[in-house]
Amino acid sequence: MPFVIALLAPVFWGTTYALVSLYLQDMSPYWVAVWRALPAGILLLMLRPRLPTLAWSKLSLLAFCNIGAFFALLFIGAYRLPGAVAGTLGATLPLIFLILAWLIDKKRPGMKWLLLGLMGLGGVILLLNPSADLDPIGVLCMLSATTLIAFSSRWMQRWDVGDFLVLTAWQLLLGGLMLIPLAWFMAGPPQIPSMDVAPSLIWLVTANTAVAYWAWLWSMRNLGPEIMGMVALVNPVVAVSLGVLIVGEALDMRQWAGILVILLSLLLMKLPQNLRWNPLKARG
Question: Which intervals hold domain EamA (predicted)?
Fold first, then answer.
């Protein structure tokens, strides 16, 4: 059962890009971000009406990074990039963790980790090759959004965040409120969703946001970040599959090779230690 819960987050998040491409292209990405975060936060607070135990300053910082700025950047990227590309860039989180540990904590990666990091970077270069003609703003937004998640994940590992359902609810509520002035400034007055997109927004609010964010935080606490790093690879697999099969996106051979290289590097990073080749043991 814990692994079923863990899978909910990446599977549901992987549908975001296809959902935007098929049903939400006519809406502003900023207001879509508002309509995703704010109702989800209210829904979770109705289920668990409690005040957070985390200090408001820290909670506001998490809400900004995890929800406010993250959702805005995510939807801009989703609107400007093929879902397969956006989903794969979002899966570079372990690579960004490695870089932050090196730059901030001065933890230099071993040769194995350095080679895997360079392998993942090579995959990104293949994915973003000049002939692909990808939107640079979309690429920058996706990488920036992933970096914000990396920073906030580091903080949550160090802070006593209390009840994760309450934490998720307040992050979504505060993040949604933060997005309103940005959406109003960038896209004008609120866009009231039409009935045509209501089913898509209901999915986005309930499964894609409320359930998925709770499942992710619950699983991080109960299964640990290493297992969840492995489970997170389901996200780009779902995004790529839906993009190609349903949306009709087409990728060239170099982009497919880049996606495979990135996923392989992340897979090798997350293999249990006893499954990796040890040259000392190999020599007997």
Answer: 4-128, 138-269
